[in-house]
Amino acid sequence: MTTKATTDENSPEGQRKHLSAAGLRARGWTPAMVRQLLGEPDLLRSHPHFHSAPQTRLYSIERVEAAEQSEEFRAASAVAARRSAAARAAALRRRREVLTRIAALPLQVPRLAPGTLAAQAVRHRNRREEERRSWRGSHGGRPAAVTGAATVEGAAADVLDRWKVDYLRHRVTRDEGSLDENALHGRIGRAAAEELLRRRVYAAIAKAYPELARECERRLRE
User: Fold this and answer.
1) Region label for 155, one of left (φ > 0), alpha (ψ between -120 and 50) or beta (otherwise)
2) Are 213 and 164 in contact (CB under 8 A)?
3) DSSP state for residue 127 in the 8-state scheme
4) 114/210 Cα distance (integer angstroms)
5) Which residues lie in Polar residues bias regions (predicted)?
6) Collapsing DSSP states into helix, strand and coil, what is residue 58?
7) What is the pLDDT along the chain (222 residues), one digit of tens a residue?
């Protein structure tokens, strides 16, 4: 029968006589197994600091150990193990499929004259800065302006290279919609896919524009 925990039951000595859902998971129990073999908890313990939080469900260790000796528990454990192995295999297969797709996608880096690339990069940077200010509701300084194919008014010498790489990376992922990292959200192996995509994009930019290879390498080291 389920009862509310008292102060004594919340003590370390009392807690050793019961297991929480996390403790059951560590012993190989699944939620379905808990519902099937244990049913209702033996105790409900309130959160010590947040009284509005759901109560912790505690199960008697004696009852848990008795259930673990049953044939029903062994059968349910075997089924859970098979399902877990199948899920891991499926996840690994989907991860490989995503990586294979990313590795095979063609990358088209636009080839632009130095002055055109600089102008496009600065426009792209100014547009993004304007969007950021709009989101924050703030006002910024005047937009950047190109004074030559390799310099930006009031900026360090390497700043334009950063803006060029930003622009080219945006162009590659925009023109190839399937390359957009946002499309990988929720996919199996997302982190590995994003890293592979990132490396492929920067390698393609460095190949198309050797003068930007240093900036691409810097980003890959970050």
Assistant:
1) beta
2) no
3) H
4) 12
5) 1-13
6) strand
7) 444 443 344 444 445 799 999 999 999 999 999 999 999 999 998 877 887 888 899 999 999 999 999 999 999 999 999 999 999 999 889 888 888 888 888 889 999 999 899 999 999 998 888 888 777 765 555 556 555 544 555 556 688 999 999 999 999 987 555 455 545 555 667 788 888 999 999 999 999 999 999 999 999 988
Question: Is 189 in contact with 93 (CB distance < 8 Å)?
Answer: no
Alpha carbon distance 43, 152 (integer Å) = 68
Contacts of 15 (CB under 8 A, 6+ apart): 9, 58
Cβ-Cβ contacts under 8 Å for 95 (sequence gap 6 or more): 188, 189, 192
Q: Is the pTM of this model over 0.85?
A: no
Q: Phi first, then psi: give them for residue 115, nearest 5 degrees.
A: -65, -40
CA 37 to CA 96: how far, in whole Å? 37
Contacts of 130 (CB under 8 A, 6+ apart): 140, 143
What is residue 145's three-state secondary structure? Answer: coil
